[in-house]
Each structure stands twice: as C-alpha cells, then as structure tokens.
C-alpha cells in the first residue's frame, strides 16, 4: 500500500490552486462539448435538415452527429497524448482549450449539417486532448497517494459543472434567446448553446503566464533522463495486459454515455405528459430532465472521490458499480419510469450516478498503471481507442436499433434500444473486468 511509504505531503500553494482551477474549468467544458450535441441535436436537425424526429433519416443523421466528431477527437487525442509526453503537460493543455474554444464559437454559425460536423469535430478533438494533458498534470503534483487521489477526484467532479452548464445554457437560450443578437436573422437556441462553449479560452489565456509545468516531467526533461514515448511500448510484456483490458473497459464504460445518456433528451419529448405540450415547453422539460442527469453526474463523481481515497483495491470497486448498473438500467428504460415524467427524471439521475462514477474511476486509475514517460501516451490510447473510437459506435447502434425495436411511439422504441445497448456494454465490462490488474502502490517514474 502506498500509504505506508514515507512520503511527505506537499503544501498546497497558490500555483497548485491555479492549476486545479484551470484543470477543473477545462474538465467542465470538456464534458460540455462532449455532451452538448445530445441536447441540441433534435432542434439542429429540424432546422438544418430539415428532418422529422423519429424518421429513419433523422435517426441516421443524429447518430452521425454524435459519432463522427467523437471518433475524430479520439484519433486527435492519440497524437495529443504523445505530444503531452514529448512537449509537456502545460503547453498541450493550454492550446487544446484555445482550439476548442474557437471552434465551439464558430459551430454556432453553421449553415449545414456538414459544416456543423466540421466545427464539432475540431471542438471535440481539442476537448479530448485537454483531458489527457490535465490528468497527467494533476497526477504529478502530489507524491502523497491520498491527496493525489482526492485532487484528481475533485478536479474531475468539476466536469459535472459542464452538465449543469448545458442544462442552464439551453434553458436560458430557449427562454430568453429572442433577446440575444440574431444569427442569420433567427434566434435559434441551439446556436447560442454551442457558442457558450467558447468561454473557457478567455480566462485561460489570462492565466497562461502563471501556469507551471509538471515538476516531475520538467526535472527529467532538464536532466536528459526522460525516455522517449512510443505506442509500441504500451504492448511490451509488462504493459500489454493493462493496455488491452483498460481499452476494452473504457469502450464499454463510454458506450453507456453514447448509447444511453446522450439519447435521454430525445426520449423526453415523447413521454406521455410531455408529448401534449407546446414545443417550447417540451424543450424546457428537456433541460429540466437533463438537470437531473447532471445532478447524478456530480453525485457519482463525488461518491467516487471518497471511495478511491479510502479503498485501495480497484477491481472490486469497478465490478460493484457495474453490477448495480446491470440491475438498474432495464428498470429505468423498460419499466414504469417511462410512463411518468417525474419518475423518469429521478430514475435517470440514479443511472447517471453509476455512469459518472466509472469515468472518475478511470481518471484515477490510468495514471497509476503507466510510467512517467508513457503516462500521456497510455492514457490517450485507452481513452482514445476505447472511449472515443469504439464506444461512439454505441450511438450509431442505438439510433439504428430504434428503427426496429418494439414500442408504440418513437420514444418507446428509442428507450428499448437504449436498454439493449447499455445492458450489452455492461455485461461485456463485467466479463472483461475479471482481468483488470490492480495498480502498483506508488507512481511509476521510470
């Protein structure tokens, strides 16, 4: 156990707070950019298509908008993880946020689905790279295990703020968007919601001169002892198992987001009480339900902070979360919650708790199983290939299955597809997690 090692806790300085705030802001907008399309894809396609919700054409384009930008981001973060190990954590983190902030703003001016896809791909690419750099950066601040785990956990909990910002930004845009400057002569709420993602670039550029580099990485770089990273090293005999298993488990865990959570906003307008309301009221309900998903995301990440600080063994923790999800998911999307909007919003809150706890689990786990010179490369491989290339296939699977699943309404068909995809991903994760290795007691520096 690392807690038995003679490690002197490092005092929390103003620079540590600045790094924590920068990483937390980045995490919040990372999640904002990854999730925002799920809440605006319906009005986007109705305006830019225009496509009718529930049709096969609508479902195809919805799947593509949720799939292609994330896969592009995953491939970009592979390179970003390598650059994080080569060029430093701070430099890659800062410029990745600037890139996705600019692209997010320009996405609000898209005039076609193809143009929106282009800007969304750049936006998500920057967000994916930022996450990898920030995790490596925070990991190397503290040699003390408990403080390091707590800081990683609380910083990732800031990601939940991104969820709240989506619900708040979209509700505000729907309710008061007609008071904002027109874009192409219209006051489309989805445009203002996408533009809101540009905000983190402003404070970051002001803070950049005061952000230090990772002290561990900088010391080895200056001494000339930092080994050159390479993707082939991830499949060396002592890393092969952890690389393969974490990549598969990351794919299963993130499939719950792309195949389940991201489709909840499209289920809401079809719930019995909501379907009879005017469109504006329906979209407000979408924001209201999404707010409960956001609350679940925050609670899940905070729960994980306490668990990883006081529990050393990681595999039983992950498997416990997976078993709970396997029992809950069918009850939510195939059970009575689908017949009452109030029950549904609380049910999806519980689902969100279990999904977000998994995400924070990986943010704390991965930095401990890869050595210093491969930390960004290893994290990016698991996140990118598993979580950003294979997992988004769940978005396509859900949208296509919703065309053929049983159900009296499009919302019921979509919910059935969601349940099937989510249960399949969870069962796969339970099977593969049996081979998940426990991390070493201390961070690897060589």
Structure description:
The protein has 446 residues and is mostly helical. It has a single domain (15-435), classed as MFS general substrate transporter like domains (Growth Hormone, Chain: A). The chain is 73% helix and 0% strand. The protein has 18 helices and no strands. The chain has helices at residues 14-48, 56-87, 89-107, 113-139, 145-157, 159-176, 189-195, 201-207, 215-223, 240-259, 264-267, 272-275, 279-310, 315-334, 341-369, 375-390, 393-401, 410-432. The chain is globular.
CATH superfamily: MFS general substrate transporter like domains
What is the CATH class designation?
Mainly Alpha
The major sheet is characterized as: none
Total number of beta strands: 0
From the 3D structure, determine the CATH topology.
Answer: Growth Hormone, Chain: A
* Whole-number mean pLDDT: 85
What structural category arises from helix and sheet content?
mainly alpha
| Beginning-to-end CA distance, first to last residue | 19 Å
Number of helices: 18
DSSP strand (E) fraction? under 5%
Spans of at least 5 consecutive residues whose pLDDT stays below 50 are 1-7
Corresponding CATH architecture: Up-down Bundle
Query: What Rg do the Cα atoms give?
Result: 21 Å
What is the share of helical residues? over 70%
Oligomer: single chain
Integer tally of domains: 1
* Element order: H for helix, E for strand: HHHHHHHHHHHHHHHHHH
């Amino acid at each position: 156990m690392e807690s038995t090692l003679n490690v002197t806790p490092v005092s929390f300085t103003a620079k540590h707070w600045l790094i924590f705030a920068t990483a937390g802001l980045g995490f919040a907008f990372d999640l904002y950019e990854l999730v925002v399309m799920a809440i605006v894809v319906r009005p986007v396609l109705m305006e830019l298509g225009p496509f009718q919700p529930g049709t096969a054409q609508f479902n195809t384009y919805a799947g593509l908008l949720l799939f292609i930008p994330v896969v592009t981001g995953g491939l970009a973060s592979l390179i970003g993880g390598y650059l994080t190990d080569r060029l430093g954590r701070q430099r890659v983190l800062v410029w990745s946020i600037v890139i996705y902030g600019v692209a997010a703003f320009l996405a609000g001016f898209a005039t076609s689905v193809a143009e929106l896809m282009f800007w969304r791909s750049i936006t998500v690419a920057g967000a994916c790279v930022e996450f990898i750099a920030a995790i490596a950066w925070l990991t190397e601040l503290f040699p003390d295990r408990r403080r390091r785990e707590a800081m990683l956990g609380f910083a990732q909990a800031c990601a939940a703020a991104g969820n709240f910002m989506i619900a708040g930004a979209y509700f505000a845009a729907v309710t008061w968007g007609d008071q904002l400057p027109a874009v192409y002569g219209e006051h489309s709420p989805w445009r203002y919601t996408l533009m809101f993602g540009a905000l983190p670039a402003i404070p970051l550029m002001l803070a950049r001169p005061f952000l230090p580099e990772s002290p561990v990485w900088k010391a080895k770089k200056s001494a000339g002892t930092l080994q050159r990273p390479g993707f082939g090293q991830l499949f060396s005999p002592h890393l092969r198992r952890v690389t393969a298993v974490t990549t598969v488990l990351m794919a299963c865990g993130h499939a719950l987001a792309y195949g389940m959570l991201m489709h909840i906003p499209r289920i809401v307008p079809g719930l019995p009480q909501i379907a009879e309301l005017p469109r504006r009221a329906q979209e407000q309900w979408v924001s209201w339900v999404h707010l409960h998903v956001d609350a679940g995301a925050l609670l899940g990440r905070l729960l994980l902070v306490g668990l990883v600080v006081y529990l050393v063994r990681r595999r039983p923790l992950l498997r416990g979360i997976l078993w709970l999800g396997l029992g809950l998911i069918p009850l939510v999307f195939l059970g009575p919650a689908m017949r009452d909007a109030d029950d549904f919003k609380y049910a999806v809150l519980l689902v969100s708790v279990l999904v977000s706890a998994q995400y924070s689990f990986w943010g704390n786990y991965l930095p401990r199983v890869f050595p210093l010179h491969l930390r960004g490369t290893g994290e990016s491989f698991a996140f990118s290939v598993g979580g950003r290339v294979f997992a988004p296939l769940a978005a396509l699977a859900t949208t296509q299955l919703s065309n053929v699943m049983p159900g009296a309404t499009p919302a019921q068909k979509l919910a059935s597809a969601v349940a099937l995809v989510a249960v399949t991903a969870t069962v796969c994760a339970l099977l593969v997690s049996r081979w998940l290795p426990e991390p070493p007691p201390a961070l690897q520096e060589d």
